[in-house]
């Protein structure tokens, strides 16, 4: 039997089995669906929508090209990607997954980077936003705001290490025109020139650009919501039929070799599928704090198969391959766990030894309280933002695709 036929049989059996499991466990499946919908409704949609819309407008008006020219001397020698990669990296860290993938795909469609450079770029611009790390994981799950500093440091340093590693991916890339224009034009002058040319080429009026940005962003977020709900149900079904426990037995051996508590095997498996529930299970484990921080850092960096499925769907519309992204997530998970191990004492234990009035000035000025307050605000007003945004989307979509059509 050919590999193609085996693949067809596997998917048929898998989807059929999942359907039967959902039918046999309607209550649990409904609860898992509601949980996934709540995450999307309250947090994901309202927190990502502004970044997606603003990013579309920045690309349309040429601001991204402007930033790209300025960051070219930094991004190309260090990460071997064009300067626009700096914009994607910053937006990815600020807004969280899967913003880095969406922006990478977008600038690839604009022909601002090559496919190889896009594969390098998307590999290290995937990250959780600081609101999730401080608000949900550190405070919500671990009940320790200061732990967010350690988790964030391990997470973003892991991103940096992946970027430095992936710069060697693919060998030399000479397909992009890399003329040394900086010799002729000063960087600022060249940046403004690219900004002006991009704005001139954009023929859409402001209203049309804004409408397109809203529609495109909400369509992407609807797709993301579907994946979150699907993997929430899938994760619950695996737990109900005890598949998670069987896989955890295999992982227990690996954790033992690494001298990490085997109590974290089930939370680790859960986190591989879904990042939020996985970190919640890690925080509730009886393992020691260092082991929990390392596993939580791995889960945050790996992102969960739910997020990776979202990224795969976004990249499917381009010629960017998903495999380098998946390998980079494993690398970042390892990097972040190792970094968390080495930073646990200086960034957590040593800080705990200080009294609140003896904390270093740096940490007093950079307290994570802003992230915690913003996270709580999102939880309260998030559903209202989601409802209003969906109403605007229905209006714009209907106006363009229904009401404008003549009978």
UniProtKB/TrEMBL annotation:
Keywords: Membrane, Transmembrane, Transmembrane helix. The chain crosses the membrane at residues 48-71, 131-157, 213-234, 246-273, 293-314, 326-344, 378-398. Pfam families: Gate. The keyword Transcription does not apply. Residues 43-140 form the Nucleoside transporter/FeoB GTPase Gate domain. Coiled coil: none annotated. It comes from the Bacteria. NCBIfam families: spore_ylbJ (TIGR02871). This is Sporulation integral membrane protein YlbJ. It comes from Metabacillus bambusae. The gene is ylbJ.
């Amino acid at each position: 039997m050919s590999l193609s036929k085996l693949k067809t049989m596997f998917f048929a059996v898998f989807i059929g089995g999942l359907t039967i499991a959902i039918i046999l466990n309607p209550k649990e499946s409904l609860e898992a669906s509601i949980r996934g919908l709540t995450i999307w409704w309250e947090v994901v949609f309202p927190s990502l929508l502004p970044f997606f819309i603003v990013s579309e407008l920045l690309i349309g008006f040429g601001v991204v090209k402007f930033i790209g020219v300025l960051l070219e001397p930094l991004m190309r020698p260090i990460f071997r990607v064009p300067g626009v990669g700096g914009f994607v990296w910053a937006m990815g860290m600020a807004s969280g997954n899967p913003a880095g993938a969406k922006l990478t795909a977008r600038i690839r469609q604009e022909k601002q980077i090559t496919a190889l450079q896009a594969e390098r770029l998307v590999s290290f611009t995937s990250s959780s936003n600081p609101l999730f790390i401080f608000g949900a994981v550190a405070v919500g799950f671990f009940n320790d705001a200061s732990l967010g500093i350690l988790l964030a440091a391990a997470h973003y340093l892991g991103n940096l290490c992946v970027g430095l590693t992936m710069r060697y991916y693919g060998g030399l890339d000479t397909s992009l025109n890399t003329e040394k224009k900086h010799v002729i034009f000063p960087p600022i002058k060249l940046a403004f020139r690219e900004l002006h040319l991009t704005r001139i080429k954009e023929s859409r009026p402001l209203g049309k650009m804004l409408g397109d940005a809203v529609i495109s962003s909400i369509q992407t977020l609807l797709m993301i919501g579907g994946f979150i709900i699907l993997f929430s149900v899938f994760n619950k079904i695996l737990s109900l039929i005890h598949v998670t426990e069987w896989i955890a037995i295999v992982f227990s051996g690996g954790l033992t070799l690494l001298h990490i508590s085997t109590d974290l095997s089930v939370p680790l498996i859960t986190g591989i599928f879904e990042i939020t529930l996985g970190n919640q299970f890690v925080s509730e484990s009886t393992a020691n704090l260092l082991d929990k921080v390392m596993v939580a850092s791995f889960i945050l960096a790996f992102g969960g198969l739910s997020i990776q499925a979202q990224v795969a769907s976004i990249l499917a519309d381009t010629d960017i391959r998903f495999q380098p992204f998946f390998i980079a997530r494993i690398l970042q998970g390892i990097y972040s766990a190792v970094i968390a191990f080495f930073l646990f004492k200086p960034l957590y234990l040593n800080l705990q030894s200080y009294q609140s009035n003896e904390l270093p000035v740096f940490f007093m000025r950079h307290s994570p309280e802003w992230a915690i307050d913003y996270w709580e605000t999102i939880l309260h007003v998030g559903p209202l933002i989601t409802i209003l945004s969906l109403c605007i989307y229905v209006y714009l979509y209907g106006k363009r695709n229904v009401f404008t059509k003549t009978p």
